[in-house]
Amino acid sequence: MKNVDTFDKNTKTIHVLVALCDNKYQGIVPVSEKIGNGQDPDQNLYWGAGYGVRTYFKKSKEWKLLKTEKKDSIRMERLIFQHTSKKNHYLVADAYDGQYIKNCTKDFLYSSSGQMKDILSINNTKIGLYGNAKLVSYIGHDGLMDFQLSESFKNTDKQTRDCIILACYSKRFFSPLLQETKANPLVWTSHLMAPEAYILHDALTGYLNNESGEQIRSRAALAYSKYQKCSVKAARNLLITGW
Which domain of life does this protein belong to (predicted)? Predict the structure, then answer.
């Protein structure tokens, strides 16, 4: 595991780890074959589809795509965005091959605890990744419903990172491990849900405006209510903040 933290401390990164939707390798209710192929980011429900991270953030007026990279056999694609007005804020999103959902989950928890840190250079600026990010997000199926992790995710640097976990029942299943990391859960979930990118997008708008956890949660719930055509009350019951 890398633990490199020599980056420009004036920059602030949001690192989003996406486990691609995968009918074959994940314990999900199957979706259509095209959007449920965890080895095809371009069509995937959580990445290249209409409300996937890549598609939704590329269309956003708040974020500018700087670079797309092909990474390796586990992280199939990386996107690097810069905020259009708060230019010291970057968003890095990684698409993990759906069969490696366990890797994605562990990387999220290692990042939240500060055990895993890395950097990247973009336009002559070094920005922080994983545990060097100010906020770490996991998006996808809740793999902890299917498997257990025996690794230790104990916080190693006494820093508190914010996190957003968009997966079914994420508070119930992630709580025991997340407590070890000392991370601050800004938005996570109480029930079954669709982890689509508009939730993260609108929550981040509030986050970059230094809003409270409750205000950020409200933005996320309003977005969910709008796109899922459910009541705001139902969305607020689903998307919760804090412990």
Answer: Bacteria
Structure tokens at 4: 């490199």
Distance, CA of 22 to chain centre = 17
Number of independent structural domains in the chain = 1
Half-sphere exposure in the Cβ direction for 101 (13 Å, CA)? 25
Asked if residue 159 belongs to a domain, the reply is yes
Whether the model pTM is above 0.85:
yes
Q: What is the pLDDT of residues 129-187, one digit of tens each?
A: 999 999 999 999 999 999 999 999 999 999 999 999 999 999 999 999 999 999 999 99
pLDDT for 206 equals 98
Q: How confident is the model at residue 20 (pLDDT cuts 50, 70, 90)?
A: very high
Residue 180 lies in a domain: yes
Q: Please spell the DSSP secondary structure of 116-178, one letter per residue.
A: -EEEEEETTEEEEEETTSSEEEEES--GGGT----S----SSS---EEEEESTTHHHHHHHHH
Helices (H), the chain: 53-59, 101-113, 170-181, 197-208, 213-228, 232-238
For residue 219, being part of any structural domain is answered with no
Q: CA–CA separation, 97 vs 92, rounded Å? A: 16
Q: Give residue 3's pLDDT.
A: 87
The answer to the question of residue 181 being in a domain is yes
Quick one: DSSP state of residue 99?
G
